[in-house]
Amino acid sequence: MTGMDTQEHQIDLGHLMAFDPLHHFPSPPTSREELVKECLQKGTVLVQLIADALFNLPSTEDIDGPLVKLPPPMTRLPREKHLPKPKPPTKWELFAKAKGIKNRKKDKIVYDEQTGTWKRRHGYDRVNDDKDIPIIEAKMTDEPGEDPFVKRQAEKKKRVEKHEKNRLQNLKQAAKVGALPSHIQLAATALPITGTQAAPKKASKNELQDIASMAAAATASGGKFDKKLVGEKPEKHKGKYRKFLPVVEGTGIGSQEKQQTEKVLNRLISKNSHEILNVDKAINMYNVKKEKKRKNQRGKDSSTSSKLKPKKQLQKKSLKKGGSSKKGKSK
Amino acid sequence: MYFKLRLGLAVYTLHKSFQSFLLQTLPFGLKSKLIMLKIKTPKSGKAKREIEKRAPKLVESGKKTLILQGTKTSNVLNAVLTEIYHLKKDSAVRYTRKNENIRPFESGGETSLEFFSLKTDCSIFVFGSHSKKRPDNLVIGRTYDHHIYDLVEVGVENFKSMESFTYDKKLSPKVGSKPFIAFIGEGFESVDELKHLKEVLLDLLRGEVVENLNLAGLDHAYICTAVSSNRVFFTHCAMRLKKSGTIVPRMELVEVGPSMDLVVRRHRLPNDSVRKEAMKTAKEQPKKKVKNVSQDVIQGKVGKIYVPDQQVGSVALPYKAKGLKRERREAKMKHETNDRAPKKQKENSE
Prior knowledge:
The complex is a heterodimer of chains A (331) and B (350). Chain A has 331 residues and is mostly helical. Chain A is built from seven helices and seven strands, in the order ββαββαββαβαααα.
C-alpha cells in the first residue's frame, strides 16, 4: 500500500519520500533561475502527491493535531549496528531444562514463624537472617571448640564466592558468542608479568596515605600553607633530613665526631670494614668459645687432679682480654 | 621466547603467537589464572541507561551524524558544514578541530573516523576538506558496527546559505520535524553513483523513524534533482499548506534553506558480505501481551484496573488546619504558665 505508481512516481510513505524517475532535463540546462524554478515546480508536484497519500490515511485526533499511523518504509536502508544476538542459556538454565525444573514465583513478603510477623524475603530485616538465630544446638558430629556461628558465616561466604564464579563463567560464555549484556564489561584485573604468576601487589591504605602526604609536600612552599583535609595523615618524616654535629662538644669516648670519622675511615679502608662480618663481635665470640673449651678441659683435668692446678688462669684471662681489645682497635 | 618446565608447573615467558597454543595444552587450573577477569557494571542508574541507549537494538531509530573537517577548509565549506549541522541540530555532533590524519578513501586514514564514531555513537559522518585538486569536498559516509560501510565524495558548487534567502519568518521550519524528500531525474536510476548518492542522502536527511506522525508538524521538504549524470541540485524548502476543497491541503514550496550543487567525484560501495549483514532485518517479534485485558464474548474487551487502598485518615494535609493551630497555641500557653519562664522578651510584650 505504500508504493503508488501513478505516472511512474515512486512514493515511499514510511520515509515521506517521492521519486520521479522519468523526468528528463533538456540539455544543456537553461539559466540558473529557470533551473531552480523548474526544480521547485517538479518538487511541488511530488510533495503534493505524498501529501495526498498521507492525508488519506486513517487519522486519529490528538491534542496537537491529527495523528496518522505511517506504514513501514519500502526502501531498505542498512542498519547502524549488528542485530543483538540472543544470550546463550546459562549452566543452570541448561540443567533445569534437562531435568524439567520449572521456575516458581516467590513472594516478596513471607510469614516469619519466629516473630509471627510478615517479613520480606530479601534485604533489611529479612526472614531467615543469620544474625537472628539465638541458639544452635550441638550435634554429635560437631567438633568441640568450633564456633558454629562463624562456621555458618564462612559457609555462606563460600557459597557466595561460588555463585560469583559461576556468574563469571556464564558471562564469559556469553562474551565468546558475542552476546554479553550491554551494561556489563569484562575487564582484566591483573595481567601476569612475564616469568611469574604473581599479580602486582596492591598498595595498602596506609601506604597510599603516606605517599599522598609526601606528594602534598611537593609544592613551592613545601606544603606548609596548604589546608589539610579531614582524615589526612600528617607527614611521617617531617622537617630535617640532615643531621649536623654540634659545634661545641668535648672529646672522649662518646664524642660524635670521633664516631663519625671512625665510621668513615672504616668504610674507606676496606680491609678492616666487613659489612657482613662484625670483626669485634667475631673475636669476642671466638675468645669466649676458647675459654669455655679450656674451662671444660681444665674441669676434666681438675676432676682427675684438682690440687695441681696453677693459678695462671686469672692472669691469662686478663692478658687475653687486653690483648683482644687491642687487636681489634689497633689496626 | 623460551619456556622451561619445572616439576610439572610451567614457568614461561611467552611470545603472543604461542599463547593460544599453550592455552590449549595447559592444565585447566592454570588456564583460569592466566587472565583474571572482573565483572564491571555501571555504578549509577544514569550510567547504565546511557550504555543501554548505545546498545544494538532490534528496531533502530534515527542515526546520529558526525560533522567534522580535515586539514584545510574554505569559507564555503565552513558555511556548508555549519548549515548541515543546523539542519540536524538534535541528532548531530559537530567537531570543529582540524583532523590531519583522516583520509576516508585511504586504507589507513579511517581509524580516527571509526574511533570518533565509537565515542559519539554516530553512524553517518560528513567530512569536509578543501584542496587544490578537490575544492570544497564533502565526504558523506556511513558506518556499520563502527567500521566504515560506504563513502560518497561530492564537491559543493554554487552554494547559497540560509541567510541569503528572504522569506516570511513564520514559515521557518522547526528543528527535528520530519521532512519530505523528493528525488527528481532519471539519473538517480541509471547512474550507479547517483543511485548510491540517493541512498546516502535519504539516510542522512530522513530524521527519526516514527510510527505515528502528527500532520500539523509537517513543514519542510528537501528537493534533489539530477541535472546531469554527475550533478545533483539540492535545495531545502519550507512548506505552506493552503486550504483546498478536500481534506488534502495544497502544498506550496518556498525556498528557505541552503541550496547547492553536488558534483559526485568518487564513491565506494560496501562489501557484499557486510552489505548482506547490514541489510538483515529482525524477525517480526511476537506481539507483547497486554496485561489486565481480556476478551469477553458478551461484553467484548474487558479491562481490570487495580486501585490501591486509600488511607483517608493518615494522609498529610497540604495546609495547616485552623483548629490545629489554635490547639497548639493553647497548649503552648498552658506550658508556659506551668513549666518555664518565657525565654524571649517579645512574648512578654505580646
